Amino acid sequence: MTDTRGPQPPYEMFGGEQPAPQQAGQPYHPPQAYPSPPGGGGTQGGQQQAGTAVRRPRTGARTTPRTRKARLRVAKADPWSVMKVSFLLSIALGICTVIASAVLWMVMDAMGVFSTVGGTISEATGSNESNGFDLQSFLSLPRVLIFTSVIAVIDVVLATALATLGAFIYNLSAGFVGGVELTLAEDE
Length: 188
Fold this sequence. Notes:
The protein is mainly alpha-helical.
């Protein structure tokens, strides 16, 4: 392809400055975005440092920052990710339940609740002999922890299954009505 326009004059910048040619081995310095006008006008007292330009704010500009907001829609919940997250959260809840029941049992045993309630039951049933109901042996710590662990395992299975089923039901209903709309705002 041949250029038929003929010789072109070199580019001219604001204020009549010519761009400096790139020298080998020197880093590239782009031209100034706001070159200073000749004569030094535009700053207070008519003085301006060479090479710096000062932008003055507009008189009607806002002083408060604008908060960005975005309206988003949760169109689909992935059942696999919901199942993984609910499984981990329900395991954490099960561990917390077992630890809380052990601590509660130890506190109640230290306060003497089991012996007091066992004595009250023995008095109420009139069986002060050895063949009466022994609450302390019935509610021993290993028995309570086994019962709590079984409840925690059942809770893990049920919570995971219900959360996954909930994700499937949400996806079906979001197909009809479009999903849940959220408005997110950026913090300052």
